[in-house]
Design the sequence.
């Protein structure tokens, strides 16, 4: 166990102690918890110097060594970038939650345990080299996210949102597990690094495409890509710190991380390029389009997160073309898109975290998040407004904020995508920049809605649930202020994070040598700048005419939304499975018996016919006498009488007749002991039958004809014929000589002249002992059934 | 002889199954008894029929019938007797408690 292992396991360790200290604390629990992410963050910062030089750190810790499963950690640029975001935003979120979550009214120990579980899982996820460990932690993030969304479990909407998020992300997680297993079978290793080293073998495998698609399903569900994005808006029922942390900065980027991590393995193939960039662009368009319509601030932010994740995803897709080329120049050309993706990933974590915190402040201070009720908060909450201004303008992609830089780089990446000419369907790439531009216009509009609706205009106090609205406490403002400052700082000094974080991360994503990129804030009047200016002009025009064109949303009815498709699908699945089960599970024992007989004996017949098993050999058969035929006919007659009679007494007596004819058969076949036992047993059984019959007074008098059912007849004939054929085949084929000659030693070995009795009590005495036990148990059962009655029941 | 007995066993099986698929409890038990008769016949036939004398050691006899199937059937007869008696008492009790011996009417609650 290395120090890095300790850092990753630290949140889990802290979870253990929280319940013990929680009750004894007088201060807010968050003040203790905050040291965990802070400690991790500081130690992660210490990794920067060595990672930025191109080094990496690998540690191993045995978990299940016999299966080759070890907690292997691989710390490179990508893992460090994610680790810093997770621990850094984590620290700020914990500080924010200290002021957001009420100490007296909330179950804080639950909250922080879930949060720390999530943090540890996420940290381990991004630095795990072992795919199965990665999967384990992946599911742990799903579970802890489920717990966090349903934190206010007494609310119905929280539970519904949590359930939906769970179903969708676990579905994706399981698909991903299948993909990872396929991948590790192809590459014959669980280690991602070794897979990258053996990428040639993987690319030639016929299972390459299935593994690719399954892993992408995992990444797309987690990162809320189209059409799996529906869980994210419903996850907004979680407390705002959770939304800020999980559903904007960290968990939803796990899918992005997976795609980036798998790029060296799958990148360069046409399927990967089209799926990742295509789905990314569709998500970008869908998210930004839907966000404009939202009236709840958090729902707006959820859709904007979906759209921004789509943006990053599409850049990762375009950037994967870099792996198609081996020469430096073309590779660098597309690697720039990957670089832009990583840059925007970082930027998004900063401004989206800040925006969620702002929305949380508004919610906390006014009591509502509905933009139709809010307005004119600028004068009351100047600090909050400033942060919202920074965050939303960064998200819209305006200078002087970091979003401007990454959006320009996004346009560059999309423009370069049009020059992709190595995959089929090249003409499709020409619409990439158009989609990107239109989506950016919508992004601009919803960013302005976010900024203008709550803060400008007039404040209507009567519409607000809370009495007196005022600025948030300073502690609540500090985390978003830090994030806001970072947004501005990155704009002015982008190369600081570019050099120390993004270039090492790019190197890890590409696993190939490319020259380090410089981020230039001002690169002249290029196409990208004109596109941005176009976005601003059209965005403002559309924003001010918003009332006129929102009619187009009515063209798409709600019933056709993915959400209602999902809901009705879920409902129908339940209904259909219930009706299916009701159809075959009738509760009628006859039906179950029919299923059993039909299946068993049809399978036997099919197997016999299918393997050419039917061959008879009557050569060794013994002779038949006229007595034998008479006895057999008598037995058949007796057996049929049990069926054909309407009188039960007749049925019982003919059953007795069958038994006594059995005795005669035993006599003919030289089995004296059997004949004796059968006679006694048959007598006793018949007596019991009659006794039973006699003691059913009401039922005894009733004479009832059996109803004829053709199915019953067919099934009975099927069973009888199968038994006869099977045994006839079996009796004609004797594979080994019987061991009956051994038992002729009965006198020497056991001192008995009756061989059957010697077998029963000497050679195979165990059978007899247990058979006695069976009789004993049956006797107790009979006694119990007759004697024991429920209390108060005196009937006999 | 063997095929005659096996056809007989098949007929016993068929009548047994037809009885078991009925609704009256008593018929079902009659079916199980017939079924065990059929099974005993099959076991006996598998050991070949009518080869030699009863399996009682005697110096004058050179060939005995196979004693092992007989021992197995003996065990089986006793066990099926135990089961049959238990089933009979169980059906007696069930019919008394439920005031019916019709299997269709002996159902649990619909939401069970």
Sequence:
């Amino acid at each position: 166990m290395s120090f890095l292992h300790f850092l990753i396991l630290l949140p889990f360790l802290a979870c253990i102690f929280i319940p013990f200290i929680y009750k004894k604390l007088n201060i807010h629990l968050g003040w203790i918890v905050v040291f965990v992410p802070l400690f991790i963050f500081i130690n992660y910062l210490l990794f920067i110097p060595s990672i930025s030089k191109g080094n990496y750190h690998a540690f191993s810790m045995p978990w299940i060594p016999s299966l080759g499963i070890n907690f292997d950690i691989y710390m490179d640029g990508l893992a460090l970038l994610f680790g810093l975001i997770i621990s850094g935003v984590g620290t700020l979120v914990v500080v924010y939650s200290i002021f957001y979550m009420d100490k007296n009214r909330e179950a804080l120990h639950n909250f922080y345990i879930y949060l720390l579980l999530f943090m540890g899982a996420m940290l381990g996820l991004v630095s795990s080299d072992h795919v199965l460990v990665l999967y384990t932690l992946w599911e742990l993030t799903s579970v802890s996210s489920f717990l966090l969304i349903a934190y206010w479990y007494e609310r119905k909407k929280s539970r519904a949102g949590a359930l939906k998020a769970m179903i969708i992300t676990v579905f994706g997680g399981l698909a991903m597990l299948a993909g990872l297993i396929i991948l590790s079978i192809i590459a014959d290793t669980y280690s991602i690094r070794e897979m990258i080293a053996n990428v040639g073998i993987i690319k030639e495998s016929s299972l390459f495409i299935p593994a690719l698609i399954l892993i992408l399903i995992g990444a797309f569900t987690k990162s809320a890509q189209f059409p799996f994005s529906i869980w994210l808006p419903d996850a907004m029922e979680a407390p705002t710190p959770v939304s800020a942390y999980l559903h904007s900065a960290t968990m939803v980027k796990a899918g992005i991380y997976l795609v980036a991590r798998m790029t060296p393995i799958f990148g360069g193939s046409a399927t990967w390029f089209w799926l990742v960039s295509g789905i990314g662009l569709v998500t970008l368009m869908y998210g930004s389009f839907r966000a404009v319509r939202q009236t709840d601030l958090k729902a707006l932010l959820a859709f904007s997160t979906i759209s921004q994740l789509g943006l990053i995803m599409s850049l990762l897709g375009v950037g994967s073309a870099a792996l198609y080329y081996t020469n430096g120049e073309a590779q660098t050309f597309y690697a720039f898109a990957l670089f832009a993706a990583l840059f925007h990933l970082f930027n998004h974590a900063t401004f989206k975290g800040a925006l969620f915190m702002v929305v949380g402040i508004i919610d906390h201070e006014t009591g509502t998040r509905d933009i139709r009720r809010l307005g004119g908060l600028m004068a009351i909450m100047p600090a909050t407004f400033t942060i919202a201004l920074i965050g939303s303008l960064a998200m819209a992609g305006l200078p002087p904020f970091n979003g401007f830089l990454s959006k320009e780089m996004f346009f560059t990446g999309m423009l370069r995508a049009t020059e992709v000419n190595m995959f089929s369907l090249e003409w499709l790439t020409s619409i990439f920049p158009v989609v990107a531009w239109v989506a950016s216009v919508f992004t601009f509009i919803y960013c302005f809605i976010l900024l203008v609706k709550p803060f400008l205009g007039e404040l209507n106090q009567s519409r607000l649930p809370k009495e007196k609205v005022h600025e948030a406490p300073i502690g609540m403002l500090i985390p978003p202020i830090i994030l806001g400052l970072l947004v501005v700082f990155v704009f002015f000094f982008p190369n600081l994070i570019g050099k120390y974080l993004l270039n090492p991360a790019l190197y890890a994503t590409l696993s190939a040598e490319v020259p380090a990129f410089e981020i230039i804030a001002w690169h002249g009047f290029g196409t990208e700048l004109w596109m941005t200016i176009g976005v601003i002009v059209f965005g403002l025009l559309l924003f001010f005419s918003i009332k006129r064109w929102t009619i187009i949303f009515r063209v798409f009815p709600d019933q056709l939304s993915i959400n209602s498709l999902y809901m009705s699908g879920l409902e129908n699945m339940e209904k259909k499975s219930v009706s299916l089960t009701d159809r075959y599970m009738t509760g009628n024992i006859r039906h179950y018996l029919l299923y059993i007989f039909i299946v068993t004996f049809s399978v036997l017949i099919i197997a016999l016919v299918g393997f050419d098993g039917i061959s008879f050999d009557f050569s060794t058969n013994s002779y038949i006498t006229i007595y034998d035929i008479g006895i057999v006919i008598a037995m058949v007659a007796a057996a049929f009488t049990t069926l054909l009679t309407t009188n039960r007494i007749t049925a019982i007596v003919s059953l007795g007749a069958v038994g006594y004819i059995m005795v005669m058969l035993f006599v003919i076949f030289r089995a004296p002991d059997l004949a004796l036992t059968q006679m006694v047993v048959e007598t006793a059984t018949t007596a019991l039958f009659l006794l039973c019959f006699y003691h059913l007074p009401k039922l005894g008098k009733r004479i009832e004809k059996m109803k004829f059912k053709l199915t019953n007849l067919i099934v009975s004939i099927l069973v009888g014929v199968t038994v006869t054929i099977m045994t006839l085949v079996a009796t004609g084929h004797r594979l080994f000589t019987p061991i009956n000659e051994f038992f002729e030693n009965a006198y020497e070995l056991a001192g008995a002249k009756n061989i059957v009795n010697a077998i029963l009590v000497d050679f195979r005495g165990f059978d007899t002992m247990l058979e006695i036990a069976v009789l004993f148990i049956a006797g107790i059962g009979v006694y119990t059934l007759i004697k024991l009655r429920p209390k108060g029941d005196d009937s006999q | 002889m063997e095929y005659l007995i096996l056809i007989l066993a098949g007929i016993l099986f068929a009548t047994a199954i037809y009885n078991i698929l009925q609704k009256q409890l008593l018929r079902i038990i009659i079916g199980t008894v017939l079924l065990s008769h059929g099974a005993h016949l099959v076991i006996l036939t598998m050991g070949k029929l009518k080869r030699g004398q009863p399996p009682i050691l005697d110096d004058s006899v050179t060939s005995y019938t196979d004693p092992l199937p007989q021992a197995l059937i003996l065990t089986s007869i006793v066990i099926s007797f135990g089961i049959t008696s238990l089933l009979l008492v169980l059906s007696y009790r069930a019919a008394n408690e439920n005031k019916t011996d019709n299997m269709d009417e002996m159902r649990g609650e619909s939401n069970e």
In short: Chain B is about 65% helix and 0% strand. Chain B has a mean pLDDT of 85.
